[in-house]
Amino acid sequence: MCGIAGLIYRDGARNIGGEMTAMLQALKHRGPDSTGFAVYGEPGPNEYILRFKVAEQEDLGRGTKIRRAIAERKAAVDGLLEELGVTVLDLDGPTEYASRYRIAYDGDMKDLADQMEEIEGTEILSIGNALELIKDLGDAADVSGAYDLGVFRGTHGIGHTRMATESDVDIRSAHPYWAYPYNDIAVVHNGQITNYWLMRRQLERSGQRFVSNCDSELLAVYTAVNLEKGMTLEDSLERSIHEIDGVFTYLITTRNELGMAKDTMAAKPMVLYEADDMVALASEEVAIRAIIPHEIDTTDPYDEEIRVWQA
Hints:
The chain is of the alpha+beta class. It has 2 domains: 3-41 and 139-310, Aminohydrolase, N-terminal nucleophile (Ntn) domain (Glutamine Phosphoribosylpyrophosphate, subunit 1, domain 1, 4-Layer Sandwich), CATH 3.60.20.10; 43-129, Alpha-Beta Plaits (2-Layer Sandwich). 28% of the residues lie in helices and 30% in strands. The strands form 3 sheets. It has a 6-stranded antiparallel beta sheet with strand order 7-2-8-1-14-13. A 5-stranded antiparallel beta sheet has the order 9-10-11-12-15. A 4-stranded antiparallel beta sheet has the order 4-5-3-6, with no helix packed on it. α5 crosses α6 and α6 (215-228) crosses α7 (233-243). The mean pLDDT is 92.
């Protein structure tokens, strides 16, 4: 029983980090193990935001040995970026094991991503012109506080609160998922995809790479491939209803869009609030009321419904 939420503004940037934090904190009861955000800011020209980790939170308990390894991995990343001609415009280390680099680079981003992940213990969380993906153990308030998300300004975002069932409680298993190595595509998902392995193998045979064994990542890669082929986001969502088996509701974001899809059975909950300037969605209405305290009218999307909103 996980919780998902999404928010998009049609009239410019707002405090998307603070509002997504409030929404996900209201869904804490649906998943207390980890929390994740995919938020979209306003990038500079020819800039990318690179977010990556070089260890898990729980690794820090291993003492000086892991701290030495963390330092070595960060040094290896810095050396690789310099070798590839990447300009680091600024950098931040919100935690010992996670880093945020603002970079300028006109080379092959897939090659950069592939080489970075060859560094032992290193995992890219996201690379995007606008996307920043942040996820860690703890509830929304814990993660938002650690990564200073409460003041993040942007146009839209999605988030997830996770209750671990079949996989470990770690950052790798937390949501959202970025579509490796595609720019600015992320997904959150509530449900189960029953033809996951079949579809994953088909995508892998076509050259796609997965960084986890979570079925939610499939939705991100599937969408990215469709968009690369020239489909619109709406077309991809419509196609997913008929090609993906299981019980699911998912939210997907690109640089300028927020999309939603529900499967044929519509068993996984979703509540929608739409106004002239914004749209908010969540697994429960309590999350929407966390940012809109006045009286509102919400709706429940029906089976096989897809929607797309523009920032």
